[in-house]
Amino acid sequence: MSETLDPMPTRIDHQQLAAELVAKARAEGVDLVGPGGLLAGLTKSVLETALEAEMSQHLGYDKHDSVGRDGGNARNGTRTKTVLTEIGPVGIEVSRDRDASFEPVMVRKRQCRLNGIDQIVLSLAARGLTTGEIAAHVGEVYGATVSKDTISRITDKVVAEMTEWRNRPLDRVYPVIFVDAVVVKVRDGQVANRPFYAAVGVTVHGERDILGLWAGDGHEGTKFWLQILTEIKNRGVEDVCIAVCDGLTGLPDSITAVWPLVTVQACVIHLLRNTFRYAGRQDWEKISKDLKPIYTAPTVASAAACFAEFTETWGDRYPAIIRLWRNAWEEFIPFLDYDVEIRKVICTTNAIESLNARYRRAVRARGHFPSDEAALTCLYLVTRSLDPTGRGRARWIIRWKPALNALAITFEGRLTPTTTN
Fold first, then answer.
1. pLDDT per residue over 343-361, tens digit each?
2. Residue 154 burial (CB < 10 Å; 0-12/13-18/19+)?
């Protein structure tokens, strides 16, 4: 007895298929891109085939099937429609049915652009482009006209998404959180500088997690910060080991009120950043080299000795830097009590500075915003673009396990590597 085996399905070789299509297009003198090009033709064929399959599923029979002759609902011709795709405008034929009950999914009714275009618009908005600039870019690159109102509607759709993101559950514990600010120009009667705050947590898995964004007016006090921190706690954060902040009135007291066991640390990153504001750019590299022994010193006494050498070298030229460090010394030296691995977490500037740089780049490109909500939307779009999952997460440092071990020993019993996100 013999058996007949069904042949194994052949896997499509996309590279070979693409090569054949390109060769055929060139032989026939067809352009690869642009109106009437190969990509436009393929996109048209794929969309129309998918829509035809959806119609067959809706009616329960294929095109030209005799079942459709029983007098029930049936195909009723097509209508022409132009959709904006990532390769430009593409004209397609959309099948219709007699009772108009067909609701296509691939290209919905009244949909005039594919979702990829929305993502392109959001990506451009995250880079600080205005609606007019985005409209001009789409017209220049894709040869299609998209109004500024349409672009505004696309960006406005993320407001609900932003609200959901700002209310999402957070992890139970964060070894370290940072509170930082970026200054944004907002037109409220007149254009004024407004601080917008970001809380950034380091998770027990060594990821940077942007906890939220908030608008301030520059006169924030204990009540404001208590409200913000209570909101973070209500979203699931039961404990924070180290909170890093700088120069924000009422914030340290509010932090200890919400998480009694937290250690509040002056931000070394801000101290270093403020240092370079007083120094000429030509001296930045030398000053950076001379400062490093201070904040990497093993003890307070060693740091004091290094600072004395720094003062002797730079005191006459930059007295404001010396005064800055002396005023911040008592808030800085608790940093020296931590294990070197914990210091790396607190003093690793890349994760914070890269985030701030992206925020500032987008804000600078816009110039100013009509409202706080518009500024928050722009900052959220930047945050969204950092992580494909939309959570704003990224690796903090590469070698995380040594830091986690040091944190677990220093804050024994307080770190449980679980996540609710």
1. 888 876 566 777 888 888 8
2. buried
